[in-house]
């Protein structure tokens, strides 16, 4: 795989999204209804209250449920497309 192909695979289709709960900005791609790729553009514990308030290392958190809800809302409203249709 070339560097360009690898870059496209990893970041192609990523769109900016702002969490409706806290305003944290991430890049997101909905590959399917079940699969969401999120790329944080800042350190989560610095910008997301859920990560900042984690009991223990924030790296152990899977994701933020408020961010997941915000992304789901955007999909329902049609402002974030799902790649597989």
From TrEMBL:
Full protein name: Ferredoxin
Upper taxonomic lineage: Bacteria, Bacillati, Actinomycetota, Actinomycetes, Pseudonocardiales
Origin species: Amycolatopsis australiensis
């Amino acid at each position: 795989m070339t560097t360009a192909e690898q870059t496209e695979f990893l970041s192609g289709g990523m769109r900016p999204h702002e969490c409706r709960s806290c305003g944290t900005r991430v890049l997101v791609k909905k590959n399917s209804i079940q699969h969401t790729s999120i790329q944080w553009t800042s350190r989560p514990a610095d910008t997301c209250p859920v990560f900042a308030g984690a009991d223990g290392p924030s790296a152990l958190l899977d994701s933020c449920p408020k961010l997941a809800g915000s992304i789901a809302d955007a999909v329902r409203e049609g402002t974030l497309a799902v790649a597989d249709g």
